[in-house]
Amino acid sequence: MLLPYALLLPGLFWFSAAVYTPIREYSGTDFFSEWDYYGYIDNTTWGNVTYVDESTGTSQGLTYIDPNTGHAIIKVDNTTNIAAAPTVNRNSVKITSKDAYPIGSLVVIDVSHIPYGCSVWPSFWMLGTDLLWPLAGEIDIIEAINNLGSNQYALHTTPGCYLAANSVQTGNTIETDCSTGQGCLVQETKPNSFGSGFAQAGGGVFATQLDVSGIYMWFWPRSSLPVSILQADSASTMNLTDWGTPTASYPASACNITQYFQPQQLVLDITLCGVWAGVPSIYNSTGCSGQCIDNVIGTGNPIYNEAYWDITYIRTYLATTTTTTDTAGNSTSSPFSSSLSSVSTSALTFSPSVSSTAGSGTNTVSANSVAAVFAFTGRLTWIPWSTVPIFLWFGAWILCL
User: Fold this and answer.
1) How far does the chain reach from its first CA to its final CA, in angstroms?
2) 48-59: per-residue pLDDT in tens?
3) Is 20 in contact with 387 (CB distance < 8 Å)?
4) Phi and psi at residue 168, in whole multiples of 5°?
5) pLDDT number for residue 322
6) What is the mean pLDDT of the chain?
7) Among 61, 105, 263, 345, who pairs with 386 as Cys (CB 3.0-4.6 Å)?
8) How confident is the model at residue 364 (pLDDT cuts 50, 70, 90)?
């Protein structure tokens, strides 16, 4: 692929791509073994759900491995009859990875089905560890609501981080300031990146690269996956040279990545209504009518029959070797020389818990719940630092002379 930010030298464009070594694959019968279940109400985006614990998720069939495909299924309860009441919650799932991923990481997710439908708000995102949101940053990789047809990508940070005006990307920039409620937001322009169209097209693959040079996100529908992804297995290294231009590019020229992002945990969830999907004006402008809460009440069938994730795998990588190539096709390889190269797999392990008071009781919940403070999208995320190929910038090159 032509990496999004090439270095312009006298008469030549240079770009560099890291070779990524696999760290972990979440797939098959072991998919859920490296995740923590939230086990509490949605007290971050205030959706009408109770996120179940692991035993409840298993016994109610909300998380399981499809015996026919081997894929991981994560879903909203669509069998319980819920009566109307002042406050109603339907069971759903939120899980957070036990590992946290630093700068230099790459995250690839292969999905056949993303939850959709009126009141449905799914997300796959990354949330920085240890600090209250958004001090450690957030990366939104897959997120949309109701009956929208397009995915959106965003970063959430403290003030000072922006999406550069000259970003090379295929997506549409909606907001450039990452400290606003909606974050620095980019909308997918490829068709069928969300909703029924995504499912009917057989799903696709999303990837996120977290590098000192910036954060970059891609989407490919099933029909146009890069060869590097098509041919990869859990033991394969990953090379990004055939990936093409990212949908969303956040170069470090407008956002100091090492300043705004700490190691990131992965988060998968499905909430209902809440502070984005359930806002009346937004709900009625995204393919739905009536009131959002009316979906939650009742049996949940058929309204939530499409409210599920179907995931083939999530693979994580760490940058090792950097290859620099000029337009004449000449390549040179060198070890990834940043101090990040010393990060080992054991350094990725991070499973925080903190005390959080909500309502009338005090509960021990995963750190991501405390880090979550309402963002416009209704979800607070901890950012997983994924993928670090090293892009050489002209200024840095001059300084090294």
Assistant:
1) 28
2) 999 999 999 999
3) yes
4) -95, 110
5) 56
6) 82
7) 105
8) very low
Cα 283 to Cα 276: distance, rounded to the nearest angstrom = 8
Q: Across residues 380-389, what is the average pLDDT?
A: 33
**Which candidate, 255, 313, 287, places its Cα nearest to that of 110?**
313
Distances (CA, A) of 384 to 123, 180, 207, 309, 317: 14, 20, 12, 20, 11
Q: What is the 3-state secondary structure (H, E, C) of the chain?
A: CCCCCCEEECCEEEEEEEEEEEEEEEEHHHHHHHEEECCEECCCCCCCEEECCHHHHHHCCCEEECCCCCCEEEECCCCCCECCCCCCCEEECEEEEEEEECCCEEEEEEEEECCCCCCEEEEEEEEECCCCCCCCCEEEEEECCCCCCCCEEEEECCCCCECCCCCCCCCEECCCECCCCCCEEEECCCCCCCHHHHHHCCCEEEEEEEECCEEEEEEEEHHHCCHHHHCCCCCCCEECCCCCCCCEEEECCCCCHHHHCCCEEEEEEEEECHHHHCCHHHHCCCCCCCCCHHHHCECCCCCCCCCEEEEEEEEEEEEEEEEEEECCCCEEEEECCCHHHHCCHHHHECCCEEEEEECCEEEEEEHHHHHCCCCCCCCCCECCCCECCCCCCHHHHHHHC
Catalytic residues: 138, 143
pLDDT in tens, 296-327: 999 999 999 999 999 999 999 999 865 543 44
Sign for the CA dihedral angle at 60, 66, 72, 74 comes to negative
Q: Is the pTM of this model over 0.70?
A: yes
Q: Please tell me the distance from the alpha carbon of residue 291 to that of residue 296, in angstroms, as a whole number.
A: 10
Cis preceding-peptide flag for 263 (omega within 30 of 0):
no
- Give how far Cα 125 sits from Cα of 206, 303, 333, Å: 11, 25, 32
- Measured distance CA(220)–CA(295) in Å, rounded: 31
